[in-house]
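PROTOCOL LOG
Step 1. Enter all chains and additional molecules of the complex.
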Amino acid sequence: MTARSTPEQTLELAAFVPFRLNRLADGVSQHLAVIYRKRFGLDIPQWRVMATVGSKHGCTAQYIAASTRMHKSRVSRAIGELEARALIERASSGEDRRQRQVHLSRSGRRMYSELVPLALEREAALLACLGPERLAGFMVGVETLERFLELED
Amino acid sequence: MTARSTPEQTLELAAFVPFRLNRLADGVSQHLAVIYRKRFGLDIPQWRVMATVGSKHGCTAQYIAASTRMHKSRVSRAIGELEARALIERASSGEDRRQRQVHLSRSGRRMYSELVPLALEREAALLACLGPERLAGFMVGVETLERFLELED
DNA sequence: CCAAGACGGTTGCGGGCGCAACTAGTTGTG
DNA sequence: CACAACTAGTTGCGCCCGCAACCGTCTTGG
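Step 2. Run joint prediction.
Step 3. Record the structure below.
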């Protein structure tokens, strides 16, 4: 009853979800990276650090690494570059002298307050192409996959 | 009537869709890369070339680049490595002597026929965590975004 | 038919990043 | 207290990849 001459199973990359997800995430990133790079001179690791520190003042490098899922060396370098541009400042923690608390500087806060509305607006413009109900269905899928892969937080 | 003391708009990275999409795509890739790398010794560019050539025999490097959205140099190097492992073969095209038609070798076909079922199975296992209806809703969102960003094909 | 430009594919170069080793500081145990 | 094990963060090394220059091959137009 089953086919004898195995008809050579094939895989169309354009229909393969992992590939499509990669391509989609990449496209979305490109869509946003323009702002970060051209307008503020930030690359993605730097942007992620800015975003994290902007909403979690005084956090540590390891906190940033955990919540952005970037390798600690990448975080360390991004922090170094941002500090060199005086966008963030580091203060030794009194508690544990190994860790350094990261804060936005005055100009860092200024950039952050300019950057965030643009990013949110760009995100909204992207998601607007789905209606509200499609968006909801999409996000349910994203959340379920995140939980399955244990990516949340 | 508008707020006077702007309450400093913030952005939570964990709720920012572009970031979450990147993280998700990355998680999914990791989930699959194990197979490619540990079992077949392929990295992602190589896997994409194998997949493309396996379903489009005799295609050219530029076709691979266009359909995988990889830079042509990345494609060129991946092809070179696969050829060195005798998984693919290149034949000069009679039509245009600049381009070279890429085929799977005998051992390439063997690997392909082993690789594809595993990849599809792994994809299915991943998507199974969404039910059929959640999956449908999720894919509608993915397709809509792809069209919006002009990523299809 | 020849020059100029376009195009397929390759490669040197430099930048970014993961890995692993390292420093400095902390915690736990006898 | 001493010593081992652990943790926060930094950095040298090597790999991967995008960029741009390049080579050989078409193609077009004068």
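Step 4. Note key features.
The first helix of chain B runs from residue 17 to 40.
The first strand of chain B starts at residue 88 and ends at 92.
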